Amino acid sequence: MYYHLPEHNTFPWPKKEAFVYQNLNPERREKLSNILLVVTDVDGVHTNDTVLLGIGPNGERFEMYRFITCDGIVIKECLRHNIQVVLISGRKAPAVKQRAADLGAQCLQGIEDKVKAVREVLDKLGLEWEHVLFVGNDIQDLSLIRKAGFSAAPRDAAPEVRSEADYVTKKKGGKGVVREVLQMLLEAQGHWETILTRERTLG
N or C: which end of the chain has fewer CB within 10 A? Predict the structure, then answer.
């Protein structure tokens, strides 16, 4: 079966998505230009806030996470451009530790006081809060949202978090939130064009 489209096509083709980094306002660009440390929550940011919990044949507990590869690409690019990356979580999960190790990022798990933990990282690096970009999604992340030099929240984050974040992503948690925010960071710091035009592929 064939469909004839009119000469002046009015068919509702999806519009090409506008990249957020092309619409950086001066204030946002200035804040991002200072960032030297990226800190991200895990559940609801790298994932869709779902954990698959299973029990093995001997009663052992195991958990499974689903990560999106495009997030890992920009994390590696940040590290290549001397922007440190930390994954932080109040939970403990071997899958998260492995994900961070695969990317070369630092992993902090079982953290009750995230502000204190990040402050310790800052002291080791000789940095201040203005150098921190933080991505979080729920009320336990509000303290870091308020402290960070630049903060972001997924589109489906808790409303209290979205209302205080500097930026709310177009993506939902687990659907490329980290890619969206860190691509914007790399663009603001002038790295993105270099990444796109280099002559060799880096994994």
Answer: N
Domains and CATH numbers, the chain: 26-193 (3.40.50.1000)
Q: Give the dihedral sign, CA 77/79/82/86.
A: positive
**Would you tell me how many other CB atoms lie within 10 Å of the CB of residue 119?**
15
Distance separating alpha carbons of residues 41 and 69, to the nearest angstrom: 17
C-alpha to C-alpha distance for 9 and 84, rounded to whole angstroms: 48
pLDDT tens column, 89-143: 999 999 999 999 999 999 999 999 999 999 999 999 999 999 999 999 999 999 9
What does the block give as tokens for 37? 């440390």
Q: How far, in Å, CA of 132 to CA of 31, rounded?
A: 10
Look at phi and psi of residue 104 and say left if phi exceeds 0, alpha if psi is from -120 to 50, else beta.
left
Tokens of 14: 């999806």
Q: How far apart are CA 129 and CA 124, in angstroms?
A: 13
For residue range 69-78, what is the model confidence (pLDDT) as tens digits? Answer: 999 999 999 9
DSSP state of 127: -
Neighbours of 122 (CB within 10 A): 18
- Give the C-alpha separation, 8 to 127, whole Å: 57
pTM metric for this prediction: 0.86
Alpha carbon 82 to its chain centroid, in Å, reads 17
CB 88 within 8 A of CB 108: yes
